[in-house]
Amino acid sequence: MSRFWSETTRNITPYVPGEQPRDKIRIKLNTNENPYPPSPGVLACLRELANEDLRLYPDPDSRELCETVADYYGLSAEQVFPGNGSDEVLAFLFQTFFGPDDLIAFPDVTYSFYPVYARLYGIPYREIPVREDFSIDFSGYPGEAKGILFANPNAPTGLYIPPAEIEALLRARPDTLIVVDEAYVDFGNQSVVPLVKKYDNLLVVQTLSKSRALAGMRIGLAMGHPELIEGLNRIKNSFNSYTMDRLAQAAAICAFRDDAYYREINGRIIRERERFKETLRGMGIPCTDSKSNFVFASLPGLKGPDALRLLREQGILVRNFAGNPRIADWLRITIGTKEDMDRVVEAVKKIMER
Amino acid sequence: MSRFWSETTRNITPYVPGEQPRDKIRIKLNTNENPYPPSPGVLACLRELANEDLRLYPDPDSRELCETVADYYGLSAEQVFPGNGSDEVLAFLFQTFFGPDDLIAFPDVTYSFYPVYARLYGIPYREIPVREDFSIDFSGYPGEAKGILFANPNAPTGLYIPPAEIEALLRARPDTLIVVDEAYVDFGNQSVVPLVKKYDNLLVVQTLSKSRALAGMRIGLAMGHPELIEGLNRIKNSFNSYTMDRLAQAAAICAFRDDAYYREINGRIIRERERFKETLRGMGIPCTDSKSNFVFASLPGLKGPDALRLLREQGILVRNFAGNPRIADWLRITIGTKEDMDRVVEAVKKIMER
């Protein structure tokens, strides 16, 4: 510790992302990356734009990207905010909408970065227990909360809430900002983005890291009422004039144009997810009904960290959240290719047969 | 304004970066971009890495980049912090080292983003007047300041302070964090980075946007004592797990390896800057002795915004800071190619002959 650290720096416990292994992991299923490459159009566009124009600053407003996303979803560009990964978008929204006098609430099982942001900005928060089956029970959320946040499908459970239930929440709580983190929505679910036109208390966050196979380019989005987006821009423009580099903006634009390619690869992931869930259940292994690009499962009779280790010994890296007692014995297993998942099944069989 | 905006969002006045024009500007000299392209090695590396690996997250610690920069400067990787542009690095350092109970001080003429950061994080600050000739007078800085920040060469004056004077400050104020923003140091000046090994109260910020012609890729750096760097990483890892995408990290690494190329193009800029200053002085136009990749000049008898407009009418975009009364009548003119500067001289001549 340095004598120069601020109080925030001294007290914070940073988020720890899934490992990017340097050793010999044969199958990396720990950070929900897409097993398929970005579209050929995205890669061609990046190669073309790796040119002398990189000496120039990017468009600070990412105008063309905002327009592309707006077209895709039937919004206006003023309803779109892009950022350097959805993590950055989330950080900005915590600071844009909440302060030390506000209360925010989120499930006790969800993306574990939320409490880190709250502590970073000194925002009081309450973690509301999910039900025994991990489903979110909105009736337990405090009336005074200025914000409610959750991922849908939720992380790391994969459980999905249909738009009608979220719309009921938006209507019941018009003065609460409802933030829906749709990082995993494209794996066969319906987005609530269309509700943005109807409710000024809805902010939807998305990422191009998962369904658009661009984790390496760091692209996130928020969509909401123009006044919410204007707020995000005020904070962003007080933090970093240009959050998205030229190549990230271009990759994002091309990815939204190559929709057919992405529907095809994500269709494969959805089919593989359903097959994998069925196989696990057939082996007597409990898993949630995940609608994401991962499966959430618990190997009977094994502590989570032990299960993690036994898989790693067979060259397979998955994720365990030992820090949260409610899910300490569960594993989050990213859906890879059919070959990847066949190997996982083999490895799990070996472990269960010991 | 939305009823959901936090107090910070309501009260902040965002920084306004130099315009990225969409109309017909023939010569863009308003944001200190390099007139020459990134090195061929950087572009080749970007084209090669625009491949299927972009589906994977980048290394969150940018380890190879830290090692490359450390090698370049004779530091250890633990003394290097990379970020998504030096704007992001600056934002992080404001939050990492200062809080509402600390006072920070910087010149009243310097990078105009500093007061925006201070307000974003609620850090009290004092702007200390530079001398009549725009030079920084460290004797006027309050003893209780926990931090002193300045750009060297300073922006937008271009005035340079040699390392010996900064070392005297580091020694005189061992409990003040001295932040030296070296965005423009590579244009013929000596960096204070070597002093990082000797003083734990020094943090040096750099960017690859200017001297390495990579404004479009958003790459910034901080260098300092390992405990200062650790503090920055605590805040960064509580904000965004992966601030630098795969291509930005790769571009930065290649740029540090292609040093000969960059020395050559920046040598051209330095020669052109000296020639341009001499020409302006020969025309009776006051300008500072800028050691940066811009010249700071004041057209006699003209208000700054009028001078800006008259140049723009001739297709030349430069920068004026009308918001700061001390420099309202001055123009910051980026050094472009010899042909660019010849045209600027012609345009200025026309204006002066009216």
In short:
Chains A, B: The modification N6-(pyridoxal phosphate)lysine is found at residue 210. Chains A, B: It catalyses: L-histidinol phosphate + 2-oxoglutarate = 3-(imidazol-4-yl)-2-oxopropyl phosphate + L-glutamate. 2 copies of one chain form a homodimer. Chain A is α/β, with parallel strands linked by helices and 354 residues long.
The level of helicity of chain A is: 25-40%
CATH homolog superfamily of the largest domain in chain A = Type I PLP-dependent aspartate aminotransferase-like (Major domain)
Strand/helix succession of chain A: HEHHEHEHEEHEEEHHHEHEEEH
How many helices of chain A? The count is 11
Shape descriptor of chain A reads: globular
Oligomer: homodimer
Largest interface: A-B, 92 and 91 residues
Radius of gyration of chain A: 20 Å
CATH topology name of the largest domain in chain A: Aspartate Aminotransferase, domain 2
Proportion of residues in β-strands of chain A: 5-15%
Q: Decide which structural class fits the backbone of chain A.
A: alpha/beta
